[in-house]
Amino acid sequence: MKLYIDGNVNRYYVQNLCMIFFPGVKFAEDEEITEDTPIVSVTVRCDDEGAHAEAEIRIGDKSKCGSHTELRRDDFTEERMIKLAVGAAVFDAGRQFFGVRPSWGMVTGVRPAKIAAEMLAAGKGVTEIKEILRNHYFMNPKKAALLTDIARREAKIVKNLGDNTCSVYISIPFCPTRCAYCSFVSYSTNRLLSLIPEYLDRLILDIDRLFETIRACGVRPVTVYIGGGTPTTLNEAQLERLLDAVCRNVDVSTLMEFTLEAGRPDTVTAAKLASAKAHGVTRVSINTQTLNNEVLERIGRRHTAEDYYKAFELARAAEIPIINTDLIAGLPGEDFASFSRTMDAIINLRPENITVHTFCVKKSADIIKSGTDIYSRSGGETGKSIDYSQVKAKLAGYKPYYCYKQRNSIGNFENVGFSLEGTEGLYNIFMMEEVHHIFAAGAGSVTKLVSKSPAKINRIFMPKYPYEYLAMEKEPEKMENYYKEILDYFNVQ
Fold first, then answer.
1. Which CATH number fits the domain that encloses residue 386?
2. Does the pLDDT at position 108 exceed 90?
3. Phi and psi for 459 in degrees, rounded to 5?
4. What pLDDT score does 376 carry?
């Protein structure tokens, strides 16, 4: 795609707007223009009245233009006014060109609930927030109501969080196999899985150092999240060592939540779950994505629906208080009828949390290499599946508690976490809404240090790949610099 911008608007923001209508598109400055090359031109100007934007989408001989004037308001910054004007113009052009009206309107960010949360914090009422979301962001009324409800629920939880709190993320970037749609830093070949013993030795040293640093900074962990990958790829003895390392560094009885991802049912054993329970784990995530065995095989999941049921029953028997199950709407080969059967079956099991994702493929996923056409502008039956999940969850007593969006998701739809009353996934909220510090250990992890005044996120990155992480053994100054950067942020000598 060729993108031309005239005016003071962030280029990355406009690229994200374009991807609402051109999912999976690439922006190459040196791309040769052919008759099939999409061309988007955006112009924006500001005056005393407001921001005036025009957008044109052209492919070959076909073109459509959109325009919008966003009037100045005391409660909109200059930047927001410009973004709203440009977003509306691009949305108008795309709606005309393709004949689709995305249900999330011009909302592109990963954390859409922040929009509603900011308005709540500014004292706006629920009715006014929904009106702004509908009329300024062009959201479908159902999405505006969903977002407002989630923002209100999150605000109540975050209100009681307290000062000087933090969360801790521990990365186990290994899986028994790689899902065809996966883009996470996770490793599944025998050669890479052979790194686990050495990786665990290094990680445990890192966990000790991380908690020592947290104590020095004067902050208090309230949630711990062991994620991946699939942490239960570790064998029983390895998992025991990992949980021991956490427990000797923090009194888990004081935590609001302690999560262990057990996402692949084929890695779950009674002994692993018994160890998790004994070490104070309060939440496990056992994810099937779908209960359609043909679809599971197609997407590279080496387990069956029956394996999921067995793993779920093991978690119930272990008496871990909260079980989460992830589903994905819009998987290749799955239609609405299949998804709805899965949703019905999961609700009948009554896990405390259900997270419904929209199928989304990143550039590094294996399914891209297969040449399969996986992007969908309208979403096909995915929107129907998403709507069904939200209605069905509500009728069953589940409430939406967090939401995030990803670029290139089918139909530009959302991912939503639902919970029974009082069982919200707290780490998900704290991480997604960036309300406090997230300290991280392990390959591919990121420590996020949150400043509220001024609002800013400082990100400190661990090496992305396990072999790079292990190589730090030979370059200890790199690990020292990681912790020094954290300590410097807190002015700790």
1. 3.80.30.20
2. no
3. -110, 130
4. 59
What is the residue-wise DSSP string for 264-307? Answer: -GGG--HHHHHHHHHTT--EEE---B-S-HHHHHHTT----HHH
CB crowding 47-67: b at 16 or more within 10 Å, else e: eeebbbbbbbbbbeeeebebe
The mean pLDDT of the chain is: 92
> Nearest Cα to 229, choosing from 308, 142, 169?
169
| Closest by Cα among 469, 462, 440, 461 to 192 | 469
For residues 20 and 408, give the distance between their C-alpha atoms in angstroms, rounded to a whole number. 8
pLDDT at 371: 44
Q: Tell me the pTM.
A: 0.91
CA distance 407 to 375: 11
pLDDT above 80 (res 183): no
- Domain range enclosing 377: 161-441
Structure tokens at 487: 């300590």
pLDDT higher at 357 or 365: 357
Residue 411 pLDDT level (bands cut at 50, 70, 90): confident
How many structural domains compose the chain?
2
Contact partners, residue 346, CB within 8 Å, separation at least 6: 288, 291, 325, 327, 354
Task: Provide the residue count of the chain.
Answer: 493
**Is there a domain that residue 391 lies in?**
yes
Assess if residue 452 is contained within a domain: no
Please say if the pLDDT value at position 184 is more than 60: no
Q: What is the DSSP letter of 359?
A: P
Assess contact for 67 and 54: CB atoms under 8 A: yes
Q: Which among 161, 285, 277 has a CA at the least distance from the CA of 225?
A: 285
pLDDT at 348 over 90: yes
| Tens digit of each residue's pLDDT (9 = 90 or more) over 453-490 | 788 999 999 999 999 999 988 888 888 999 999 999 99
172 and 88 in a single domain? The answer is no
Name the helix (H) or strand (E) containing 46: strand 39-46
